Amino acid sequence: MALMPDPAILEEMAAVTGHRFRDPSLAAIALVHSSAADGRLNSNERLEFLGDSVLGFIVCTHLFAERPDFLEGELTKVKSNIVSGRVCAELAAECGMESWMRIDKGVRGPQGLPESLLAGVFEAVVGALYLDGGLEAARAFVLPRLALRIDSALRLGHQQNFKQVLQQCLAQLEMGAPQYMVLDEQGPDHAKCFEICVLTGARRFAGAWGPSKKQSEQLAALAALKELGIAADTPEGEIHITWPTKR
Predict the structure, then answer these.
(1) What does residue 184 show for φ and ψ, rounded to 5 degrees?
(2) pTM of the entire predicted model
């Protein structure tokens, strides 16, 4: 007899994923951790394996189409920043997947579920969407949720370290070393966004939001470079750097 999910959970999954499962047993299996399964073959591990590849394919084809100017190494760096266990765990938490799962109580620690487990259920759901609705069903679920991270990664391009560029430019201009200050943070602990600005001497530059402190600092550095007239957007969507001359 096929495993069937709770009807309320199935409805919630449809609302979150934008896909109503034709085969509800796929949705059910995607949510069963091995600790609560009747044997590992009846857990979500196989769907997790499939979903990992589907997720990678969706992101790779999107990056390939969006950045025809990126070399293989640059595409790989951007993809690795977007597709990771940490990001998958954050997305699972944002979607509320923890409440959908069938899992042994002993697995849950004082801080909640382990990151690897949350990442696994997200990938398993992606795998189930692919099997039930094809690549487009999986793509329609994944890409909107990765939009902010993809946008930040592509804006940074991973071609230039804007923090390093800013530090070198400020030294050239004899303006002192940059400091990074958190102005604001929003969102739950597992998915916080940060607004960070650059300070140098008595000058404070405009803040920038990002999905992590690391990316926010890079975007804040870029904002400072633009304010100084050193960085500018090109019509092609690139960042052009005009290095300052020594004073």
Answers:
(1) -160, 160
(2) 0.65
